[in-house]
Amino acid sequence: MALLALLIARGNGVAGSVRMGVLDHLPFAAITIVGGALIFYLMHVVAVQRPRSPFRYIAADLRRQRRAPDRLLQGAWLLLLLILFTTFFSAWKGMIPELKAFSWDQRLALIDRWIHGGTDPWVHLHAVFGAPWSTWLINVLYHVWFFVMHFTYVWVAFWRGDPAVRMQYFIAFFASWILLGTMGAIQFSSAGPCYFGKVVPGAVNPFAPLMSALEAADAVLPVWALDVQRMLWAGYQADSGGITSAISAMPSMHVASTMLITMLAWQLRFPLFRGLATIFLLVILVGSVHLGWHYAVDGYAAILLTVPIWWLAGCAARTRLRRSTPRARRGATG
Fold first, then answer.
1. Contacts of residue 177, Cβ cutoff 8 Å, sequence gap at least 6
2. Burial 246-277 (b: 16+ CB within 10 A, else e)
3. What ranges do the domains of the chain cover?
4. Is the model's pTM score more than 0.85?
């Protein structure tokens, strides 16, 4: 409602606002989320269930779901909610430079340098991980984030475990994307190190050597981040307003969403899940700086702000469940 009201107030009209805020982004969100959910289900059948005949297993599973549809429905409406949310978030993110010009890059770069002893943190990282093969590996894992985030959402959507933890994750998930990924991104509008020379004209670009190092690594092994960065900048210059023009650095939602997954893992107390999630968080934090997407402070801020969001979401979830349980019991006894 806020998005459509803003678009209408900016003179786009009702039809134009619906197109810009919903229709331009809905197909991408629906295809990626529904398609991803189906892929995850097929992976579960093939890799976990491992039936002799996958097609017979799927047919039998569909019959079971029709007889007891509660689990399917409780997950399906959460997928629908994610599709709608992703649609609106994409529209908001594409509008950030229009709402507030990129103005924080120089300050964030200075803060980064001050925190890390007068040296840009990417220099330290490339001294350790600067080889083409390690840059390639970090790049691959950084792109895997998209699938890990969506897999976690889909898994929790259909999970029948602790309802308090389940509700806590979803409250924290949506709150973090609203508070950090939208409101925070507008307030601290910034493009990131890879675009520093383009959005801070007249200043010495301290990240030119970083981009040159990535280009050199790309000549040996593919660094897909460079292609995505060029695509986003081309979309931004064309003022397409779509997902391919969405540029935002502070705070890092790659890191924030991975931090949520890590806290979920520690809440569930699965030792292997804990270890893998923690390692993945460190990889995403390192990759965000190593690949030129983010200033290190973008990731630090994301971690520090996600912790209280997770805690408050837990309080809200437990309060909601305590209030709803007596009503459910009264309904059952009545």
1. 85, 89, 253, 257
2. bbbbbbbbbbbbbbbbbbbbebbeeeeebeeb
3. 1-87, 100-333
4. yes
